[in-house]
Design a protein that fits this description.
mainly beta; 4 helices; 14 strands; 15% helix
């Protein structure tokens, strides 16, 4: 589906609704280059040269990387028209962060268990079958999922989350995590692989979060969804679901290359699912730079996104081109 969707705002990530039944996440509240990917996830490694011809697609991929949906089932197990392309590495990164949060909570909760023995493993049955095993307590340990299914059997999790430096102060949980996970879905048929490192701080009440890391790679068995990756990333989401910090290199098979994204003016939102204002730059190969200036959300009509390009390595921006959110999303 070629429709972008900002899942992080005002509603919890669609996948969380299913994963909450599997791994014990709390219910959604208010507010809400490139390496080779590692572990067999193939990602492009060469920076892409931005041209007037491919600039709209690169802008679309970058925005989809930020706001696109995960194309994974919501609580009913049915895809909706609000679900976007699964090429959304940041939406997936947020989902992965919440899985990490749940794992950290499991490790932290062991502090209060008087019968915990060093090296002991606590295993529980998942709602739809399979198991979740917790090893360690206090600040470090691991959670291993073995064919762990949600109640309807729509989502299945396998793999391990390794946790260190776990801590909880009030509603805020922080930890360092290493992921080696697969999340399989029935509709659409796909197995998402997530591998990499992440430090996260998540407010379990407001859903504000900050995540960062060196490398997080996402691979999909569904070829239409492609493979994506984040490197040297820093992402902060405030209590309203707005991105207050965005900085990362992204790799995408959709553009067969890598580029560096930096938000220079925070994105603000109105009633739409797309931002209504804000500025960001994307830096590619050969000193090419694309500037994205947001003029309005999808409800504003007319030209909603302004693109400007530096192609000579200097400081001179070429004449701007103007696009709608619909036209940009159709290129992904």
């Amino acid at each position: 589906m070629n429709t972008l969707n900002r899942t992080a705002n005002r509603s919890c990530l669609q996948l969380i609704a299913r994963l909450s039944l599997v791994i014990g996440l709390t219910a959604c509240g208010g507010g809400g280059g490139g390496g080779g990917g590692g572990g067999g996830i193939t990602l492009p490694t060469a920076p892409v040269t931005i041209t007037q011809q491919n600039a709209p697609q690169i802008a679309g991929v970058a925005i989809d990387t930020l706001y696109g949906g995960t194309s994974l089932p919501i609580a009913t197990g049915v895809q909706t028209s609000a679900t976007a392309s699964a090429r959304s590495s940041t939406s997936v990164a947020q989902t992965v962060a919440r899985i990490g949060q749940a794992a950290a909570q499991q490790i932290i909760s062991q502090r209060t268990e008087t019968a915990i023995v060093t090296g002991a493993v606590s295993t529980t049955t998942c709602p739809g079958g399979g198991t979740m095993s917790v090893s360690g307590s206090g600040a470090s340990g691991s959670v291993t999922y073995t064919n762990c299914k949600d109640l309807g059997g729509v989502v299945t999790i396998n793999g391990t989350v390794s946790i260190s430096n776990a801590n909880q102060i009030g509603s805020i949980i922080s930890a360092d995590a290493v992921f080696n996970l697969t999340v399989s879905t029935v509709t659409p048929a796909n197995t998402l692989t997530a591998m990499g490192d992440m430090h996260f701080e998540i407010d379990t009440v407001t859903l504000a979060m900050t995540i960062s890391g060196n490398s997080l790679a996402m691979g999909n068995t569904n070829p239409a969804m492609g493979n994506f990756g984040l490197q040297n990333y820093m992402i902060s989401i405030d209590t309203s679901g707005n991105f207050s910090v965005l900085s990362f290199r992204f790799s995408s098979t959709a553009i067969n290359g890598t580029a560096v994204f930096a938000m220079t003016t925070p994105f603000a939102y109105g009633a739409g699912m797309f931002p209504s204002s804000g500025v960001a730059t994307i830096t590619g190969a050969n000193s090419t730079v694309l500037r994205i200036t947001i003029l309005g959300d999808e409800s504003s009509g007319g030209s909603q996104v302004q693109l400007e390009l530096i192609i000579d390595g200097g400081n001179n921006w070429a004449a701007p081109t103007y696009h709608s959110w619909a036209s940009i999303s159709s290129l992904i």
